[in-house]
């Protein structure tokens, strides 16, 4: 998914009057305590299509209303995913392209449709459901590994373990390799200014090097896994090139990793800080988990934004948008829009209907959403029923990213118990 974590905040930020209104959507500090919901609310009310300046760049339109985000996400003819879905324009080593090859997240139909078709069968609701008991077993194994200690870093030891194991199984890789690759995605999603020079392109290259080895491995020893099926698949009448495979690989590792992890960590944080809501859930966990999980998705919105680029002169509401303009959809803001959600700043696990947009929408709507839901349910069930006295003693440190929202680490305590 995301390749470059954010743009650099710079000297020529918004003028002070604008900055008061906007904070700075390019500054990781704006997201340092989670989604800036007050800023979102001001923007939505005063400037729902806001021109945010961009140091060294052309600026972008920031969308904070649900209706606008929804409309743009569904309108690929006017709002393209090319050349990239990141605010910064593509650069060398950013992983969105490789020679002639492109990641499908950054393609438009019909090309995108052909690529998505290659793997969508693996991610349907029934296909995901078939993995349910295996996911529950993985969740049990993950909680077993910490349960006797009575404390752990929830982000690294529990929430992060699940998606890295799941993607490893899906691709037919050793579980430990999944964990290593997932560490690389953390670097890839960090704000460049918080990382040593060159760390992000190096992490992308390390990912490609691993995937190149996997190509050789799967050619030599084909397996019943997604990597083997991708290598044998045909797109537009031909096999995938190696660079196309590498970009698919990067997308899958990247898209399902810290998104799911962050939802789990932010979700447990929200439940712990709202004991009444947690009590409501625990009174009938099996029956209420569905609704609760959807509300946690709305609440946490782990993907902060996706960018589109206007293909022609058009309008969003009263605002004229010129061909070539960057248009950025803020999912966390859309998910707090009072025009769509009653009392949006209230965590209401019983909320129904709950048409949140945490998985995006339109042609690129999250392909892994059914799998993600099952991963989330498996961990929540295991943690909520086994980790008695679960507490988060301090406010967790948040990720330095303008793109992905969630705690960076989250020390937790619970009553030690025996492994199952
Ligand atoms: C809580 C967890 C997750 C969240 C919040 C999330 C969110 C998103 C969002 C917002 C998009 C972009 C949608 C748009 O542009 O409208 C997306 C795309 C995508 N997601 Fe997820 N995702 C999650 C988990 C996963 C998992 C577990 C996988 C797979 C293992 C996955 C695979 C993908 C892929 C492949 C795409 C690109 C789809 C395309 O370009 O057609 N995601 N996701």
Question: What structural category arises from helix and sheet content?
Answer: alpha+beta
The number of helical runs is: 17
Strand content: 5-15%
Provide the residue-averaged pLDDT. 91
Largest sheet: 5 strands, mixed
Counting structural domains, the number is 1
Question: Which fold name fills CATH's third level, the topology?
Answer: Cytochrome p450
* The CATH class: Mainly Alpha
Strand order of the largest sheet: 1-2-12-9-3
CA-CA gap between termini: 35 Å
Low-confidence stretches: 1-19
What does this entry look like structurally?
The chain has 420 residues and is an alpha+beta fold. The chain has a single domain (44-413), classed as Cytochrome P450 (Cytochrome p450), CATH 1.10.630. It has 17 helices and 15 strands. The chain has helices spanning 16-22, 37-46, 66-74, 111-120, 125-129, 132-147, 154-159, 161-171, 175-188, 199-220, 226-232, 242-256, 258-273, 275-282, 285-300, 331-334, 369-386, and strands spanning 49-52, 60-63, 79-80, 97-98, 101-102, 151-153, 234-235, 238-239, 305-310, 314-316, 319-321, 326-330, 397-398, 407-409, 411-413. A five-stranded mixed beta sheet has the order 1-2-12-9-3. Strands 4-5 form a two-stranded antiparallel ribbon. Strand 1 (49-52) and strand 2 (60-63) form a beta hairpin. The radius of gyration is 21 Å and the shape is globular. Mean pLDDT is 91; it is low at 1-19. Bound molecules: protoporphyrin IX containing FE (HEM). Protoporphyrin IX containing FE binds at residues 73, 104-105, 116, 163, 167, 251-252, 255-256, 259-260, 263, 302-303, 306, 331, 358-362, 364-368, 371-372.
């Amino acid at each position: 998914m995301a390749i470059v974590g954010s743009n650099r905040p710079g000297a020529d930020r918004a003028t002070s009057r604008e900055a008061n209104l906007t904070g700075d959507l390019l500054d990781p500090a704006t997201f340092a305590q989670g989604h800036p919901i007050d800023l979102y609310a001001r923007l939505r009310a005063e400037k729902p299509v806001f021109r945010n300046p961009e140091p060294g760049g052309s600026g972008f339109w920031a969308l904070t209303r649900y209706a606008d985000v929804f409309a743009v996400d569904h309108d690929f003819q006017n709002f393209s995913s090319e050349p990239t879905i990141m605010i910064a324009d593509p650069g060398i080593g950013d992983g969105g392209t490789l020679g002639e090859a492109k990641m499908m997240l950054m393609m438009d139909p019909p090309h995108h449709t052909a690529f998505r078709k290659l793997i969508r069968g693996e991610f349907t609701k029934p296909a995901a459901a078939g993995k349910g008991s295996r996911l529950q077993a993985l969740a049990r194994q993950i909680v077993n590994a910490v349960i006797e200690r009575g404390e752990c870093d929830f982000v690294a030891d529990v929430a992060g373990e699940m998606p890295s194991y799941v993607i490893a199984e899906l691709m037919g890789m050793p579980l430990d390799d999944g964990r290593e690759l997932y560490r690389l995605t953390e670097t890839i999603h960090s704000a460049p200014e918080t990382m040593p020079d060159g760390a992000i392109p190096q992490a992308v290259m390390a990912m490609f090097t691993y995937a190149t080895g996997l190509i050789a491995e799967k050619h030599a020893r084909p397996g019943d896994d997604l990597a083997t099926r991708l290598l044998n698949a045909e797109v537009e009448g031909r096999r995938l090139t190696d660079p196309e495979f590498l970009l698919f690989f990067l997308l899958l590792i990247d898209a399902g990793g810290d998104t799911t992890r962050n939802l789990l960590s932010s979700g447990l944080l929200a439940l712990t800080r709202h004991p009444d809501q947690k009590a409501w859930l625990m009174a009938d966990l099996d029956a209420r988990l569905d609704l609760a999980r959807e509300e946690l998705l709305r609440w946490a919105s782990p993907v902060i934004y996706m960018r589109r680029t206007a293909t022609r002169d058009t309008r969003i509401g009263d605002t004229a948008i010129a061909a070539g303009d960057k248009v950025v959809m803020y999912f966390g803001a859309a998910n707090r829009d009072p025009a769509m959600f009653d009392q949006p700043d209230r965590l209401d696990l019983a909320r129904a209907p709950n048409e949140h947009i945490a998985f995006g929408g339109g042609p690129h709507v999250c392909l892994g959403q059914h799998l993600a839901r099952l991963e989330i349910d498996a961990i929540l069930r295991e943690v909520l029923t086994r980790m008695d006295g679960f507490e988060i003693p301090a406010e967790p440190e948040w990720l330095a990213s303008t793109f992905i929202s969630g705690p960076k680490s989250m020390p937790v305590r619970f009553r030690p118990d025996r492994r199952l």
